Structure to design on (268 residues):
């Protein structure tokens, strides 16, 4: 049974932080799987901004070296101003690669922590995938974006930005959908294969059709596709509050790799 809540809080980060090479690799493939429109570096900090889409993964300050805390207060203010120029509140992504000095500064400045998330991985060679109906990926980005927005009930104004993000993904990608003539789109998932790693992105199931096995069906289709293309491991990111999704992923063999969260400061 999955452990949720306080038992899986960010206090657990320390038990995963010893495997920093894995964290660095998964962060790097995550950046390629969900590319921001603008990426700038300040030392080892990556400042990611995307004007047309609200995703925190596309709009955050991402520290990539626990020992990089030189002039931390000055650099944080400089990054905050870049977000301000975009009309956004500054957001910091805390992974095991973030300096404790930076995190203490965020606390001292009354930044708010939110969206505790776990990154999970699965050995595809060992995974026993359920025998479900297979779905082939589409290459029609526009059709996939329409389906994803419909399933998520997201604003149509996000379509141009989402289409641009997906079109900018450089590694081979599989766009999977389940739909029927009567109900339209029911489930979507994006699988990005980066060499031997397969990233699972944007897994969504229509709210009215949950608990019917559609999530398992479309996810196993994506994992089989990745395994046939010689991917050896799969990874994904899921909020700790999403208990049904975590339970599904654990049934398929996914296990915790590391945790992260975001910190936000409201615009001045």
């Amino acid at each position: 049974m999955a452990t949720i809540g306080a038992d899986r809080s960010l206090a657990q980060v320390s038990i995963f932080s010893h495997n920093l090479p894995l964290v660095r690799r998964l962060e790097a493939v995550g950046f390629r799987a969900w590319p921001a429109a603008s990426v700038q570096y300040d030392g080892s900090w990556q400042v990611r901004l995307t004007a047309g889409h609200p995703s925190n993964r596309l709009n955050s300050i991402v520290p990539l070296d626990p020992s990089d805390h030189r002039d931390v207060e000055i650099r944080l203010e400089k990054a905050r101003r870049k977000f301000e120029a975009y009309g956004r509140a500054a957001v910091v992504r805390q992974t095991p690669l973030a300096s404790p000095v930076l995190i203490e500064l965020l606390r001292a400045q009354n930044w708010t922590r939110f969206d505790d998330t776990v990154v999970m991985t699965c050995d595809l060679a060992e995974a026993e995938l359920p025998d479900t109906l297979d779905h082939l990926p589409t290459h029609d980005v526009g059709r996939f974006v329409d389906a994803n927005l419909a399933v998520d009930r997201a604003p149509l104004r996000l379509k141009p930005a989402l289409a641009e993000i997906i079109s900018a993904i450089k590694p081979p990608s599989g766009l999977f959908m389940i739909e029927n003539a009567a109900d339209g789109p029911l489930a979507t998932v994006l699988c990005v294969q980066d060499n031997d790693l397969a990233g699972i992105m944007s897994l969504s199931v229509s709210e009215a059709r949950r608990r019917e096995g559609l999530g398992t069906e479309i996810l196993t289709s994506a994992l089989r596709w990745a395994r046939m293309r010689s991917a050896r491991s799969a990874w994904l990111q899921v909020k700790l509050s999403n208990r049904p999704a975590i339970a599904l992923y654990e049934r398929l063999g996914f296990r915790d790799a590391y945790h992260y969260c975001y910190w936000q400061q409201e615009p001045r």
Remarks:
- The helical segments are 13-16, 20-33, 72-85, 100-108, 141-152, 159-167, 214-228, 243-251.
